[in-house]
Amino acid sequence: WNNLLAAYAKEGHFDEARRAFKRMPQFSMEACIAMSIACVNKGKLQSAQRVFEKCHHKDILSWNSILAAFARSGHLLEAKLVFKRIPRRDFGSFKGIIAAYVKKGKPHKGRMIFRRIPQTSRVLDPEISEMLIRGYGSQGMVMEAKNVFESMPQPSASCWAAMVECSVKNKLLLEFAKVVFDAMPERNFSTWDSIFGAYLRLKSVEESRILFDSVPERTSSWWSSMISAYTRQGYPAQALRLFKLMDLDGFRPDYGTYGTALFVCSS
Hints:
0% strand; PPR_rpt
């Protein structure tokens, strides 16, 4: 029964999960948690709470699971009520309530709770730091995100990426974003894409081209964006030269890039 219920819940088949739950001869803790989370995902919060109360022997994993479900769904009030009821909170409990505040656009509140976690736990697990960096970044509070980042002795790769991605949204912090980008131990495609997009928006075409030439693997969209940038800023010869290089490099231009090349030729 537990496996059947978990499978229905995971695939989003709420009605089937509910029917399976009702047919169970005895409610296990795993079944109650799976059904509670399914109710939260469906927006049936009162049903989720009623099912959760059927768990007679709640352990910390069950508390943290329902808390995380409320946090993911953006139900801050319900997450706070669960957090207050947890008898002995662990790191997962704090992570869950911080996620709930960040999801609701309140990273400051999340950071206040973050400071209540023992320093050793904060250093060992960077997930909350990344959560706060992205939370501040989504609210345009880039300096606060920078403070969180700079307080980390050894930022994880995901924290480096998060700091670059939120810094490039602020024109005044683009140079800082590039410094962070250059210092990254390893860079993923998303980070390259973020910094290149910011350069196209805020820097000269020459500086964008330097970055373009340094990327290990270019995509078709990068070629198209660089060609469009040359065209917009009045460099038709460079745009056509890059268009030819794109073809030689094995990339097929899309209709928009062909249109740009035809426009350059006609003018």
